Amino acid sequence: MLALDTLHAGAAFGSAFLAGLINSVAGGGTLVTFPTLIWLGLNSVTANATSTVAIWPATLGSSWGYRRELRATEARLFALVIPSLVGGLAGARLLRFTPPAVFDRLVPFLILFATLLFLAQEPIQRRLKSAQAAQHGSSRWLVGAMVFQLLVAVYGGYFGAGIGILMLAALSVIGLTKMHQMNALKVLLAGAINGVAVIYFIGNRMVYWPYVVLMVLGSLAGGYGGAGFARRLGGATVRRIVIIVGFALALSFFIRR
Predict the structure, then answer these.
(1) What is the 3-state secondary structure (H, E, C) of the chain?
(2) pLDDT in tens, 183-242
(3) Cβ atoms of 19 and 161 closer than 8 Å
(4) Burial 85-99 (b: 16+ CB within 10 A, else e)
(5) What is the dihedral of CA 255, 22, 148, 84, to 10 degrees?
(6) What is the mean pLDDT of residues 65-90?
(7) What residue spans define the domains of the chain?
(8) Could you report the per-residue pLDDT of 129-176, keeping only the tens digit for each?
(9) CA–CA gap between residue 73 and residue 42 (Å, rounded)
(10) How far apart are the C-alpha atoms of 115 and 45, rounded to whole Å?
(11) What is the mean predicted confidence (pLDDT) over 103-118?
(12) Is the four-CA dihedral 28, 29, 32, 35 of positive or negative sign?
């Protein structure tokens, strides 16, 4: 059992607050909470599960914020929830049966991959905005997107950082061009992926609860109260900070190996 002293509690709360702030503008908050929990003494598997559970409640607020766009979404697109749930559960099970020593070796590569995805987010979104829906509206494209979403969900249940960028690419393939609608679906699907993973992690006692309680409060406070500060900094500045932090974290974990 880890000692939850003032320093540990402050670091857990502060990382979640920063993650909530980052997620309110750019996404990528997992790149802060996950390494922080490792540095606080959790093994990598427990840190990943705890981070997922702690950050997930903030997704509910985002989904509510996008309720107008979700109501306007074509009904067939909600079929993507099915592979999201299946893949999220599969990824969570995969994490449970991955020995911490093996996951430790994967951590720097996962962080680097997530950071590279985050770095590619703006170019991808610019390309998606210019995509033409007419040529991608068939059921065949939807089936392909469901298969791709299943793979994204497995990765999401296993680690999770960067899944939003992958989902935006899939949604563009099936013909969506309105970014607000795409973001709404992305939030809903990410909530499904992480939601089923959260249930699995809790049910299998993979979570360190003292940190979860603090981090839920921190992420909600960061997402709500920190949004104004993040807007003053500007999305571009926040993105640059996340990218720098991500590469620095990846490097530090490579050195630790």
Answers:
(1) CCCCCHHHHHHHHHHHHHHHHHHHHCCCCHHHHHHHHHHCCCCHHHHHHHHHHHHCHHHHHHHHHCHHHHHCCCHHHHHHHHHHHHHHHHHHHHHHCCCHHHHHHHHHHHHHHHHHHHHCHHHHHHHHHCCCCHHHCCHHHHHHHHHHHHHHHHHHHHCCCCHHHHHHHHHHHCCCCCHHHHHHHHHHHHHHHHHHHHHHHHHCCCCCHHHHHHHHHHHHHHHHHCHHHHHHHCHHHHHHHHHHHHHHHHHHHHHHC
(2) 788 888 888 998 999 999 999 999 999 999 899 998 888 877 655 665 566 666 766 776
(3) no
(4) bbbbbbbbbebeebe
(5) 110
(6) 85
(7) 6-256
(8) 555 444 445 566 777 778 888 988 998 899 877 677 777 767 766 666
(9) 41
(10) 19
(11) 80
(12) negative
Tokens of 119: 């770095």
Q: Which two tokens stand for residue 177?
A: 């061009």
1, amino acid identity = M
The length of the chain in residues reads 257
Rounded to two decimals, what is the model's pTM? 0.76
Residue with tokens 């996008």: 66
**Which residue is listed with tokens 């699907």?**
189
Q: Both tokens of residue 41? A: 């003494």
